[in-house]
Write a structure and sequence with these properties.
Layout lengths: L31 H18 L4 H24 L7 H15 L9 H4 L3
Length: about 120
């Protein structure tokens, strides 16, 4: 027996819903910058929140493992995604670059910021 009701709830503003974008032809590996930037921001944020030494080291290790784990999960647990070692590499380089901000005056930006 077929149910004729729509699959989507009657939303007041359906255009505000997140849906997958239409396929856009992009150059191969163009998403690596996005991977780098996302993990750079995560690691740079960790530098703002955690003190130097072991706490920050463990956060960095955790972010690298998360980036690798997500890529592995995409390949192992989905049928429409593949694991890309280059994405994991871009994630890792982003973590390293974000963690390197600990060596700059930016490391205490949140401590100095008055909002």
């Amino acid at each position: 027996m077929s149910d004729a009701r729509p699959l989507i709830k009657p939303l007041r503003r359906p255009r505000l819903c997140l849906i997958p974008p239409p396929p856009i032809p992009l150059p191969e590996n163009s998403d690596k910058g996005e991977h780098f930037l996302a993990y750079f921001i995560l690691a740079g944020s960790a530098v703002q929140l955690f003190r130097r030494g072991r706490p920050l080291l463990w956060v960095g290790v955790g972010l690298v493992l998360m980036g690798i784990g997500i890529e592995f999960a995409q390949g192992a647990l989905t049928s429409n995604r593949t694991a890309d070692p280059m994405d994991a590499l871009a994630n890792t380089i982003g973590v390293l670059a974000g963690m390197a901000t600990v060596l700059t005056p930016l490391r205490d930006l949140l401590l100095r910021w008055r909002g």
